[in-house]
Write a structure and sequence with these properties.
Alpha-Beta Plaits, 479 residues, globular, Glutaredoxin, 3 domains, 5-stranded antiparallel β-sheet, binds flavin-adenine dinucleotide, FAD/NAD(P)-binding domain, alpha+beta
Length: 479
């Protein structure tokens, strides 16, 4: 074997995964077909759960120190959810994808993981022991496992012949990074009487410290084939159709058309090959969820591949990747569909639809509705199906960040091992059976006992008799 895991694609998903494999103590090679990192402006919004996951690896503070990334308010279908603002330790934040990728690449390099660029994967074969990947440059890499993080047009997915059902892109809207007149930094979705709309959200600042905004726009007759370049005049016209002369375009930095294609791989696992990120799911980027879902796929998969390489993974562990992550992206695809409809992206002006939207907007003034929608898009409401979820409200959910005196529990997850919170100091003996895989902490604190997986999800709580089976279920045979 040249490496334990070959990660194909150095976007946010692949880079996060390579980092997770390093945390898990296994070797990884990360390849990308591009000669240098993409400068395309894509994601702008980073959800609470993604930030929390970065924090659990000690990466959030250094990432935030690389620029000015304002916290904002989550939205659903362009309707802001102000009552959710202080709900999470890490509120929704604007961090451009290019900044995240630059930061992750540097972080990996500091750990001697360098992206092998100019490596376009063109072939794979797998057998009982591993996967052989071949490249356009004539290179060959043999690994135990391969992860396809090679984006929406995934070569690996095509080579596998993996099913990727869904809807092709039938319509487009414009997304552009701009500087606008005025200094309003709020997220807004504004619609004119005749169906034209503009969504604006803050995107941090440009190198001169001036505020940048992401605008998306559409309306009747504005769905133009993807290949047609977006012009400055088109953006000005789109702004004028909605804001009149109130908002002016000062500078157009970047623009593209995005489609409403929506697809998801039927299976995330194909033997020793796994699909993650956009290679596994694509959808219209509404509500800042694509990159976030990909990064969280990587967090889910990394420690499981590590366990398999180290030889302690229980037989079912690698299959839980599909079982846990497929429903998450399926739910994202559905909420994106609903948002796209409610936003009347094509500006149909259908009175029935507008009536439904008005009713929906009225409902979103209710706190519980805002919380429900926020749970959905922030990632904080993701609950994985696990033994114990029926009886224990915490099991399957992201672990709370517990105050354990000198440290927070999230800081302890930096080790990449599981964490047993044992306030009454009762579980020393049982934890000692998994010394290389699970740490024990929290003795003498007033917290609730719980077992947290390396990816930060609670996998046992409360029932003492169920602890040993839970340890075996997630961390394999005792040593
Ligand atoms: C305008 C826009 C706005 C968006 N806004 C948001 C947002 O606010 N929040 C959010 O969460 N998401 C957003 N998204 C979605 C987000 O950009 C994607 O979900 C994200 O890029 C997916 O990351 P990935 O690593 O899975 O794939 P990618 O970023 O596509 O990376 C795939 C990598 O694989 C490489 N590759 C491809 N084929 C091969 C091959 N054969 N061999 C080797 N390497 C290969 C590519 O060069 C690339 O570097 C937005 C997208 C767009 C277009």
């Amino acid at each position: 074997m040249d490496t334990d895991v070959l990660v194909v694609g150095a976007g946010p998903t692949g880079m996060t995964l390579a980092g997770e494999l390093r945390v898990a103590g296994v070797s990884a090679v990360l390849v990308d077909k591009l000669a240098q990192r993409s400068a395309l402006s894509k994601a702008g919004g980073v959800q609470s759960r993604t930030q929390e996951a970065f924090d659990q690896r000690g990466l959030l503070e250094p990432l935030l120190a690389t620029g000015n990334y304002p916290a904002g308010t989550a939205h659903f279908a362009g309707i802001t959810l102000p009552l959710t603002r202080d709900r999470h330790r890490h509120p929704w934040r604007s961090i451009p994808q290019v900044a995240i990728e630059g930061f992750l690449e540097q972080h990996l390099a500091a750990q001697e993981i360098h992206v092998l660029r100019d490596h376009e994967l063109t072939g794979i074969t797998q057998d009982e022991d591993g996967v052989t990947a071949t490249f356009a440059n004539g290179g060959v890499i043999r690994s135990r496992y391969l992860v396809a993080a090679d984006g929406g047009h995934s070569t690996v997915r095509s080579l596998l012949g993996a099913e990727f059902p869904g809807r092709p892109g039938t319509e487009t809207v414009v997304a552009a990074d701009v500087r606008l007149s005025g200094d309003d930094q709020a997220m807004t979705h504004t619609r004119s009487e005749d169906g034209h709309w503009v969504l604006v959200f803050p995107l941090g600042t440009d190198p001169q410290g001036r505020p940048l905004r992401r605008v998306s726009m559409g309306g009747p007759g504005r769905s133009v084939p993807r290949e047609v370049p977006v012009t400055e005049d088109e953006i000005r016209e789109g702004l004028r159709a909605v804001f009149g002369s109130q908002v002016e375009l000062l500078e157009l930095c970047y623009a593209r058309r995005i489609t409403n294609a929506a697809r998801q791989a039927t299976r995330y696992r194909h033997g020793r090959v796994f699909l993650a990120g956009d290679a596994a799911h694509v959808h219209l980027p509404i509500g800042a969820q694509g990159m976030n879902t990909g990064i969280q796929d990587a967090l889910n998969l990394g420690w499981k591949l590590g366990a398999a390489v180290h030889g302690w993974a229980p037989g079912h562990l690698l299959d839980t990747y599909h079982a846990e992550r497929h429903p998450v992206a399926a739910a994202v695809l559905r909420n994106v569909q609903a948002q796209s409809l409610l936003m009347d992206q094509q500006g149909t002006g259908d009175p029935d639809l507008l009536a439904a939207k008005d009713l929906f907007a009225a409902l979103t003034r209710l706190r519980d509705v805002q919380y429900h929608l926020d749970d959905m898009v922030s990632g904080m409401g993701i609950r994985y199906p696990m033994p114990g979820t029926e009886d224990q409200p915490l099991v399957g959910l992201p672990a709370p960040d517990l105050d354990l005196g000198p440290v927070r529990s999230h800081e302890l997850l930096r080790s990449g091992r599981g964490l047993l919170i044992d306030p009454a100091g009762r579980f020393a003996e049982v934890a000692a059976l998994w010394p290389d895989r699970v740490d024990r902490a929290g003795q003498g604190t007033g917290t609730e006992p719980m077992l947290i997986r390396p990816d930060g999800y609670v996998c046992w709580a409360g029932d003492q008799d169920a602890l040993e089976p839970a340890l075996g279920h997630w961390f394999g045979e005792p040593r």
